[in-house]
Amino acid sequence: MFDPYYLQQLAIGLSQGVIYALMAIGFTLIFGVLNVVNFAHGEIYTLGAFVGLLVITALAPPLLVVVLVVAAVGAAFGVGLERIAFKPFRRFSDEASLKSRAMRESTLMSSLAVSIVAREGLELAFGSQMQTLPFDQLINKPIALGPITIVTGDVIIFAVAAVMLIGLQWLLTRTRVGLAIRAVSANPLGAKYVGIDTDRTIILTFAIGSMMGAAAGVLVGLYYGAIFPAMGFVPGIKAFVAMVMGGLSSIPGAVICALLLGLSEGLATTFISSNWADMVAYGFLIVTLIFFPQGLFGAGRERV
Amino acid sequence: MSALIEIDHLTRRFGGLLAVDDVSTAVAPGELVGLIGPNGAGKTTLFNLISGFTPPTSGTVRFKGEAIRGLKPHQIAGRGLSRTFQNLRIFPNMSVFDNVSVGAVGAMGQSALGAVFGGRRRSDAITARTFEALERVGLTAQAHELAANLSYGRRKYLEIARALAMKPDLLILDEPAAGLDDSETAELARFIRTLNGEGLAIMLVEHDMNLVMGICSRVVVLASGRKIADAAPAEVRADPAVLEAYLGVEA
């Protein structure tokens, strides 16, 4: 009665959603929770994939080692990114600069610039075409689940996304570092005067978020088997959409919206055509912004 | 008794404007000192110099005998100097408890690994400090409410509690009575006196003359960046230079 084909499409959509979610978690931590406009997250993801390629071709270590090495390099990239594109704009900490939107949002341009330089740099080094990852390292061994088939990567990516989500929620709500991150994002000056090292808190947040972004890049690379310098762009946009739909500061909200996006794209591909998939995703964004300007899970960020 | 904070020939120039001009004064441990002056007198700049927010053009600030030049605001705060703000700087989306525990965390160190893996004992100490500070300002019952849901007056106490959670040696209150009605101001005055009575040194910047004159043991008056008086309230009230600065007439 119910065609397993549709179930299979749902599974594909869901796995796409989990991939978006993987990207959206680190993105939302920096952009939404820390309240810093960062458009270079997609390139951290791409860099993570390329570092993974280098590590795999040089040493061919087990997957866990690859992910850990990439995460460590990603954290370093995050610290570098913060230093180049964000710290210079925190030089001025007087009231007027702190209140200036231009000052806060100038990192939109600087992070975009870093992302373009990183992407072009990768193209110079590797060329713009697809790079294939060694076949035996890929995470696409099929697993049959009754009438539908998923691959090992679906399970791994789901597990990693779940660990990241739970880990971050724990970090943000249960630890002193998380408390400092939330305080700095709410009011940097207030945090400073009660002894919080705002610079260090921001750097640490970038390190954590970028670590997750880079790990996401290598996992998705291993999932699809091919990587290329512009691969971070589309997931970056989707993560952004998921974050906005989820209410900016809510990581669980962003994850749920990323899953919704993936599912709706899967359904659009099934019932309409794959050309309409993006249309549906952005349609969702527009509908959300019209009817729920605070996002679906937004706490309503009140400014005092 | 040596001074808790010594301000020595402190000057801050912004372009052609001398915002703070050669100001010297000191606060002894346990003292309650008021800082008044007409708008634009340099009170906020002086506070910013003391708390490390703005570097001085010349002069020095010594806190507990150590020069604080070059230290960042959070480092100065960590040494026992905390402050509140004229326009509140609380964390609206966080619970009352979390707001205050940021102060405790700020004072007790926040090494990244220590914070994630740090012992139970330290987090228990932070929780204890937080509840102690909440108790002081009477916000224990609202500990789990969002800070944004508190009334304006209560938020002022929340900010004070956050500063108290640092267990500071010197507390700087920047216009704490702004926006409060008379009975709230009277309550605040009693509270400031109680805190001071327990040995906490307080510097109070305030427009509300009655509040400052009523509770401070000494009042420093700034006008156009210069210190024009530094004496007991009764003396300051009778000082011709102060009258001139406030009323703009030759006394």
Structure, explained:
The complex is a heterodimer of chains A (304) and B (251). Chain A contains twelve helices and four strands. Chain A is mainly alpha-helical. Chain A has a domain of 208 residues. In chain A, the strands form two sheets. A two-stranded antiparallel sheet of chain A has the order 1-4. Chain A has a two-stranded antiparallel sheet with strand order 2-3. The longest helix of chain A has 30 residues. The radius of gyration of chain A is 19 Å and the shape is globular. The mean pLDDT of chain A is 86. Chain B folds into two domains: 164 residues, P-loop containing nucleotide triphosphate hydrolases (Rossmann fold); 72 residues, no CATH class. Helix content of chain B is 40%, strand content 24%. In chain B, strand 1 and strand 2 form a beta hairpin. In chain B, helix 3 packs across helix 5, helix 3 packs parallel to helix 6 and helix 5 packs across helix 6. With 251 residues, chain B is an alpha/beta fold. Chain B has ten helices and ten strands. In chain B, strands 6-7-8-3-9-10 form a six-stranded mixed β-sheet, with helices on both faces. In chain B, strands 2-1-4-5 form a four-stranded antiparallel β-sheet, with helices on one face. Chains A and B meet through helix 7, helix 8 and helix 9 of A and helix 2, helix 3, helix 4 and helix 6 of B.
Pattern of helices and strands of chain B: EEEHEEHEHHHHEHEHEEHH
Helix fraction of chain A by DSSP (H/I, runs of at least 4): over 70%
Count of alpha and pi helical runs of chain A: 12
Q: Give the low-pLDDT segments of chain A.
A: none
Residues in β-strands, percent of chain A: under 5%
Question: Can you give the mean pLDDT of chain B?
Answer: 87
- Distance between termini of chain A? 57 Å
Compute the number of strand runs of chain A: 4
Query: Largest beta sheet of chain B, briefly?
Result: 6 strands, mixed
Number of helices of chain B: 10
Could you estimate the helical fraction of the residues of chain B in percent? 40-55%
Beta strand count of chain B: 10
Identify the CATH homologous superfamily of the largest domain in chain B: P-loop containing nucleotide triphosphate hydrolases
Q: State the secondary-structure class of chain A.
A: mainly alpha
Strand content of chain B: 15-25%
Biggest interface and residues each: A-B, 30 and 40 residues
| Broad CATH class of the largest domain in chain B | Alpha Beta
Question: What value does the Rg of chain B take, in angstroms?
Answer: 19 Å
**So what's the overall shape of chain A?**
globular
Give the averaged pLDDT of chain A, no decimals: 86
Report strand order across the widest sheet of chain A: 1-4
InterPro entries (chain A): ABC_transp_permease (IPR001851), BCAA_transport_permease (IPR052157)
Family (chain A): Belongs to the binding-protein-dependent transport system permease family. LivHM subfamily.
GO molecular function, one term (chain A): L-leucine transmembrane transporter activity
Membrane topology (chain A): Multi-pass membrane protein
